[in-house]
Every structure is written in structure tokens, then in C-alpha cells.
Predict the structure.
Amino acid sequence: MTAELTRGQNHPLPRARLEIRVSAGTPIVAGATLGDENGRVHGVEWVAHPGTPALPGLEVSRQAAADHRLAVDLDAVPDAVHRVSVLLALPAGGTGPGRFGAVAAPFVAVTGLDGDEVASYTITGLEAESAVVALELYRRQGAWKVRAVGQGYTGGLTELLTDQSLPQAHELARSIQEAVAGGLARSVPAPPARTADGNRSRQAATPTHGTDHGAAASQGTPGTVPPVSPYDAPGVSDPQPPGVHAQHGTQRPYPAGSGDSATAGQSSAPTGGGPIDYSHPRRQNAAPPPPPPTAPPAAPGQPARPVAGDATGWSMEERLYNQVWGMFEDLARTTAAYRSAVDFADSRMEKELDQVLSDPRSRIGGQGDAARGAARTRHTQLVSQAREALDRDIAQLAAEADVVEPALPAAYARWDNPVWHAYRVPMEIPMALRLGDLHLPEADRIRIPLLVRLPLERGLWIDSGRSASLDGSFADSHEMRRLGLEAAVAHAARLLAVYPAGEFTVHVIDPAGSGAQALAPLVQTGVLAAPPALGAAGTADVLARLTQRVDLVQMALRGGAPDALPPGLDTSQQLLIVNDFPHGFDDRAVNQLRYLADEGPAVGVHLMMVADREESAGYGPLLDPLWRSLLRLTPVADDHLADPWVGHAWTYEPALAPPGSQVLRQVLTQVAAARRPWDR
């Protein structure tokens, strides 16, 4: 799986022979420096650039281009090399832009020779800089890793090379620009002008594939030469692996997510304003029209004013859905950058303290104390800088959350949102449903809605096992069962409320009858298909009917005759709430539950189990596939959910009605009234 890095984050490299692929919206110069264990570049012979494109284990392009592929063989670099820094710069003296803030954010990917990505990084946040250290490959305890750097320099290559302790920085920078100047006429023309696409918008550059450059050239300015691969220069070979074709002028094809209408070939267009870069490549916004502006622009130098629904989409609901997931990804990545920066500061201080202790002369006396004090001071400065950046981003996200939360529709809103007081049974199924809130300890005041797409693609498991909540309180098994069933009732009420009348049916199995109090809102309002099933006989009857429904619908679909279902068969979406599992279930019932969990979602039968996994341990590994097929939720706050990008442990809080509130009963009463004509 590709690791999408944020600034300061690192990732291990699983192989030695790699390619570093660079995509930008304008011709840029690519190079690399070789550094020792302290990062020092000892001379011009340690720099690969268009004038000297090949070094041991490293090869770069001979010219400026919008797309580059740098070849790296880490096994072939000298033993004295511990760091390979990838440099990007804008050509000097040309007609192109003079700063990275005026062009699309460069995208850098580390791939294998087969094209499979290992890690990627979109260099955002650049403004007046004309040169940047994009990535560094570094050796640590015999293994190689990649780190996203993104360090820009307003002084261009000269300042960049000087910062790497190169004494001939000025002369080398001039020679690099001279070597590039002759090849600018062969470089990739800039893409067509981008149109405004809202605060979070990204327009896709027209991609061209394979070796057919004519179409691309026809879209550029008259007389331009089609794109040339960096390795097409004379004397440089560029073998392609079997089945892999070169792609020129294209950006990385980001995987489509939920509600994603983006296509491959997107490039990042930075939007000025706030400290959070809303042009992250995961934002979904390629095809739909931009939303209309709903707030005046921010004053110069001030953060961008957040607006509800400023993501793209064909409807306000889709815009809000994309905006919520964009906030989730922004918070995940800014927190990852902070944690990585703190880890870097810790490791640096530890290394400096080790160096002090390794010198016998500094172990005693004031010299050692001064060195240790200086190391701790630098550590404090680094952590403070990282915290300042995190607080700035969190403040912007908190401001965005303050305007987004009140604008959410009922399916996305908390139970205490006033939108529920104006609730009406909908005519259409929404895109998604809110199951709770997510937050991180570094930003505890920000709550991100946990949205899942509808119809549900997997069942839900409300874990009623004994647990100590994050606030330090402890709930026994009886209390956890009650809280688990209350959470299940709240989720079921949401599902009933967001579906049109007659299109969602809820069944309940409560073998011992222990959930009567928690089930009261569903029972007393009359929204259940039938009273909760009790005992072994009631359990067997409900499971048999739902299993038969799955079989009938599957046979009809596989036979190509969906209209051949028996008359009277309920074709609405079905939800089965199972309380207090495994009490009251025999082996046959357990197998039927597994069958419903595996086969039911595809034909509209969904499972919601309130269960303690330890209590069903007597079944052994038989039930392991069941637990894995369900989305685990908890009735109390718990940090068991992880995001797919950086693996943060997010604290989940269930979406429950406020204590003493009657909103849930009021909504269910309206649902029951709307269902009566369908139940006749």
C-alpha cells in the first residue's frame, strides 16, 4: 500500500532499486546530493545535476521538464553516503514562473522499477521559494528510509546548496542553470490555464499516455515541442519493464474514495489564504461544478474564511460529505506531521547527548553541561515550532467545524442539532449516515463526524465487553450490555429516520428479554416489523425468515429475473438487531448469523449485533470470520479506530441522544406515522 507522506514523516524502503518520479505543471530542474552521516555534501562531485547527471547509484535528467524519473540504486551508492536529497528548482532567467507559489504543487513519488508506488508526497505550502528539498533517502541502522522534507529556499539553488555546507554553492548553481538553459526549448510546455474551482477545487491537467505526444503538443502553444522523457536525452537509456508504459504530463492517479468523481491526471493547485492547504490531492472535486461563494473573501494576510459546503459535488449534501472527509484527512495529516516532528526532535536530542557522553573531555566540567543544555534548548525550540504549526492548523479546522456542523443535514447531524426539530420523513436515501464522532488527543475540541455510505456495505458490531472508558470510569458487564443496546437503538433510529417511508424494516432478537427498557423507543412508537423475538423459538423463526429472504433474492438476481420474487415479499432494506449474543443461540442459529453477515448486505439484509466477544469464546475460531465481517463500534468512548493513511488511533464516541432528550422518540413517532399507509 502506498504511504502518502506529510512533511517530516518517514517510511521504510523495501527495496534498493527505485525510481523517484516528479510531476509538476511547469518545467523544473531535478537533481540530487549525496551526504554523509551528518548530511554534509563534501564537494561538487557529490551532486548529480543536468551537467553531471550520473553518480554511483544515482542518475538524474539532463534537462528541465514537467515530469522526471530519477533512477536510484541504494546498493551502489558509496558506503560513505548516508543521505540522498532530491532537489527541485525553477529554471532561472527563463520566461516561466519564478516561484513555486505560482505553479501547481509538485508531486513526488518513490516507486519500484515496476511502477508500484512505495511512498508519495505532495509539496504544499510553498510561496516565494524557487528551490526545494523534496525528499531525502537516508540510511538508519543499515536500512534505508524516505522522509518528506519540503524545505523551500527563496534564494534558489545557491541558498539550497549553501545550506548543505557546499563551499562552491554559488558556482555550482550557476553551472546548473547554464546546463539547463540550452535544454529549455525541449522542455514540457506549461498546461492550459486553470479555471477557478472553489476554495477546495483542483482541475485535472489533460493527460497524455504512452509515446503519442501529438495530442499533447496540439494543446500547448504553437510551435512547442512535445514532452520528452528525462531519460530520452542522448546517451541515457530508459528501459521500461514489460507491460509498463511511460506516461508524460500526467499526475499520480489517486485511488477513488467514497463519493469520488476525480479522475487520474489531477494536479494540485494551491489556494492562497489559510495555513491549511485545501488542495490536498485526496480532496474529491474533479467533475462537479464549483459551489457558489457564500462568504466574502478574507482580508489580505488573513486565513481563508471557512464556508460550509465549499468542497465540490453535485448537491450540497455531497459537498458537505466531501468536506467532512477532507477535514478528517487534514486533521490526520497535520497531527502526523506534528508527531513526526516531535520524534525527530527527540532523536536529534538523543544523538547530541550521546555525542556529548562519548567525549571523555565533556563528561565533567562546565563544557558538558553547556552542551547538554544547548541540546535541550534546540529540542524545545523544535517542539515549540511544531506545536505552533499544529495549533495554527487546528484553529483553522476548528473554525471550519464551527460552520460545518450547524449546516449538516439530518443524516449527518448530531441528535442535538436543531435540524432534527424540523425533521420530515425524507423522499430519497441520503449518501451517508453519521454513526458517531472521531477526535485525536492533540485536537480534542474538534469532532469529525464518522460517516458511512448507504446502503451499508457491512454489518455493525456494538461491543458490549467489559471496558474502562477513556475518562477513567469503569462499567461492569451488565452496564455495558445496557449501553450497547442503547447505542444500537440510536443507530437503528437514525437508519429508520433517513430512509423513505416503507423502505427500511427493523427486526429485533432479544432471547432473554433483557433489553426491554433500552428497546422501549422502538417498541412503543411502533416502528418495528414485529415485537422483539424472545426465546429459542422466536430466534429460530426470525433467522429462518431472513435467511430465506436472502436465498430468494440471490436466486432471482442470479437468474436474471428480479421481478419473479414471491408476492408479498418485503423488498425493503432489512436490519436485524441481535441483543445479548450468544445467549439463546444454538449451533444452527450461529451458522445462520454468519450467513446473514456474509451474504446479507449484497441483497439488503444487514446485521447489528450487541455482543461480548469473550462470552462467545466457547465457539473457538468458528466466529472469527463473523467478527471480522462487522464494523466494530463501542457504546463508550474508545480509541480503536485507525485511519488508512497514517494509522492514528482515533477516539470514537457513539452518536447518542442527549440525556433526557425526547428527540429520538419524536423522530420515531413521525417515522411510524409515515409508515402506516405502507403497512396496510
Residues 184-289 have pLDDT under 50 and may be disordered. Residues 153 and 160 are 6 Å apart (CA to CA). The first strand starts at residue 3 and ends at 5.
